[in-house]
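Handout, section B. The chain below has 346 residues.
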Amino acid sequence: MIKAGIIGSTGYAGAELVRILLNHPDAKIVWYGSRSFTGQPYAEIYGSFFELVDEACLDDNMEELADAADVIFTATPQGYCASKVSEDLLSRAKVIDLSADFRIKDAARYEEWYAIHHPTPEFLGEAVYGLPELNRDLIKGARLIANPGCFPTCSVLSVFPAMKAGFIEPDSVIIDAKSGTTGAGRGAKVQNLYCEVNETVKPYGVTTHRHTPEIEDQLAKAAGREIAVQFTPHLIPMNRGILVTAYARLAKDVTEQEIRAAYTEMYGDETFVRVLPEGKVPETRYVRGSNYADVNVRVDRRTGRLIMMGAIDNIVKGAAGQAVQNMNVMFGLDEAEGLRLVPECV
């Protein structure tokens, strides 16, 4: 039985980790960490866990937690995990960080985009980017996982096969992404109030969104060189879900069937990436509550562009579900253990 501790268990991603791990046959939660709610019964914060979780929230003492747990999930703001990780801590417990602290391998680039100092750059080289569909073999032996961001997960899975096959011009990629409001976190902010987000759609982080370098770094691996991506996210009035529509100029004369074959070749054996039938488009409602990513492509002969589409649940495959998927790989379990979550129908 894997003993799991969660720092930041009362945020949306943390609560989703609790929901998933409670149904995991090979894992047990031993620490519900929350600096804001220390001492308060967890089920009082989320009533859905009434009579399911009897424990009260503990603090965020990772040093103490490392002696109690086999794996620590840090569902915390940027800067926290990087300030706590150490050689001693990693010798006692594996760490899966849901923040951006170890996703970007260049500390200066991280500091530029996140505007905070990186206190432990010596671990950037060791940390494995936790997208199992790309890095499964590296994840198996890792002590420290940089769990991908929600927008990068959907964007990279949608674009990577076409980029890797050389079907598109690398610097022509434009990613239009839309997210539900849980992507903004659980903290009280005026711009996230019901009246501020209901009945409206808006772009944000235009040209400055912090997931941009993460997307570029991962797609650069497919392109074989550094690339620049135009990424614009939008906030839409729903609780959860991400929809990506990406556009790129075709680099060669290739048929839609040939492109689809590249996607099927890359994802055909993957449990959690579903290449939809020809003509079907991804929808957030068909992945909601699950760890699935649905992808598809369409060639526009009139404009000479490839349209790449993807949908995920931002707090499952985009956060907590992917973190558990990484845990399964790290501990040699069936990758889908605890994650056979059927998407909600309505």
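Note. The chain has twelve helices and 13 strands. Compare this with the example in section A.
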